[in-house]
Amino acid sequence: MIEVTLEQVQDWIPCEIDNEYLDYTIRGVSIDSRIINEQNLFIPFKGEHVDGHKFVPQALKDGAGAAFYQKGVPLDNNDVDGPIIWVEDTLVALQQLAKAYLDFVNPKVIAVTGSNGKTTTKDMIESVLKPQFKVKKTQGNYNNEIGLPLTILELDIDTEISILEMGMSGFHEIESLSLLATPDIAIITNIGESHMQDLGSREGIAQAKSEIAFGLESGGLFIYDGDEPLLVPHVKTLTDCEQISIGKGNDNKLTCQIKEVKDSGITFEINGSESYELPILGEHNMKKCEHSLLQLVSI
């Protein structure tokens, strides 16, 4: 997890910190004042009903190493005993800190989105890469504008590969996550009907999911469900990356077909030659496994 001095924080993000605290160290991040570990950076948010800033004094008393504090929010200095990091917006500052720390650690970044199967795909990729690399993945559903930065700030300094799940409920959300993470590899597992009420149609969902390529590194790898025609117009706009389509159709770069089904799982082939056994059932899991196997070749 992040472990840096406040002087380093000041170098990384726009903020103000009293000079007397610049040699203090933060270790890890918390957004819940009830769960503060020693030297954590506490980050409060102004919610619709509760303003987390009111918990800053107690967080510092409970061992937090420092706290973000949004300019313009009243603060009684008599109640505060510890470093305050003054920022314009605590959420933006969290994201800026995460981006700076990701650049500092500099792992390969694999970003995963899709209507279904994000978590299974993420877990399969980890299982394939973990024997050879120091890998960290998104935990639970930490896949939004708060969860993704928190996931990044949990990376160890020697992390070689970061697998980041990206979720959304509307347009431009995955775009902002992708621009923050600047992935080396971006994956769209499929297009379903989740969030239809927010995006209007499956076409809208495909558009929103395709935003994962917005932050893709130049020359990066874009992997997508080639059996989904709604992704085609978005794929055609990508010119500065390698593209690999995965699916059952013969026009995909990597085709996969189930050859045998048993109670214990399935056997499937890739491009009619390489054969793999998977100890779970389902055509959808075959595609997820193909995504994960491709990572081993690509990294």
Show the helix and strand layout.
Layout lengths: L2 E3 H7 L12 E3 L1 E2 L10 E2 L13 H6 L4 E5 L13 E4 L2 H16 L2 E6 L4 H12 L5 E3 L9 H7 L7 E5 L7 H9 L3 E4 L7 H4 L2 H8 L10 E6 L6 H4 L5 E7 L6 E9 L2 E6 L3 E5 L4 H16 L1
Parallel strand pairs: 3-4, 4-5, 5-6, 7-9, 7-10, 8-9, 10-11, 11-12, 12-13
Antiparallel strand pairs: 1-2, 13-14, 14-15
| Rg, Å, rounded | 22 Å
CATH architecture label of the largest domain = 3-Layer(aba) Sandwich
Count of DSSP helices? 10
Strand order of the largest sheet: 8-9-7-10-11-12-13-14-15
- Indicate how many domains the architecture comprises: 2
CATH fourth-tier homologous superfamily of the largest domain: Mur-like, catalytic domain
Overall strand count:
15
Low-confidence stretches: none
Distance between the termini: 23 Å
Q: How much of the sequence is in beta strands?
A: 15-25%
What kind of sheet is the major sheet?
9 strands, mixed
EC number: 6.3.2.10
Keywords: ATP-binding, Ligase, Nucleotide-binding
Domain Mur ligase N-terminal catalytic: 25-101
GO molecular function, one term: UDP-N-acetylmuramoyl-tripeptide-D-alanyl-D-alanine ligase activity
Task: Provide the descriptors you would attach to this structure in a database record.
single chain; alpha/beta; 299 residues; nine-stranded mixed β-sheet; UDP-N-acetylmuramoyl-L-alanine:D-glutamate ligase; four-stranded parallel β-sheet
